[in-house]
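Late entry, evening session. Most of the bench is empty. Finally got around to the prediction I had been postponing all week. Sequence below, unchanged from the version circulated by S.P.
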Amino acid sequence: MARNVLRFTGVGGQGVLLAGEIFASAKINLGGFGVKTATYTSQVRGGPTVVDIQLDDEEIWYPHAIDGEVEFMLSVADASYQLFKNGVKEGATIVIEPNLVFPTDEDRKKWNIVEIPIITIAKEEVKLVLTQSVVALAIANAFQKVIDDETLKATMLAAVPERFHKPNLLAYELGQKYAQEAMANA
C-alpha cells in the first residue's frame, strides 16, 4: 500500500479526533505506521479543528500532512472546511455535512464534493449523535479503502466503552451504506 493522507475537520467536541486515532491505530495493528496530528484553534470547544491522518507501510518521518498531499477530506463544520480545504489535492474527494458545510461553486469545480448528512445519520438513524465520528470513519474508509473493514471495526470497538458497541457498529454500517450510495450516484 502506498502512503495515504486523510483529513477530518470539524469543531472542538465533534469527535474528529477519535476517528483519526482509530485509523492510525488500525494501521499500526496491521503492522504498518499510522500518525494522527491534530490542530486546534484557541477555542477549546466550538473552534475549528483539523486532524490529519497519515498511513504508510514505511516509517513516517514527519508528523504533519503537507498541503497538496491530502487525498481525502471529510468536514462537518464550515469554519474548519474553509480554513483547511486548500491542503487537499485538486481533484480529490471532500465529503461534507451538507447542513453545516457550504462549498462554493469554485470548490465544486476543484474537488469532488460529496454530500452525506453525517450528523443527521448519527442523530436520527443511530439515535446517538456521539456516533458521528464512527459514521465518518466508515465513510472515509469506503471512499479510500485504506484499512480492511474488520480490522477497522475491531480497532473502533476497542476504543469505545462496551455499552456503545452496538450503536457504533450500526453507525459504521450506515456510514458504509451512505458512502456506497454516494459513490454509485456519482
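Two things to note before I forget:
The chain has seven helices and six strands.
The chain has a mean pLDDT of 92.
Will write this up properly tomorrow.
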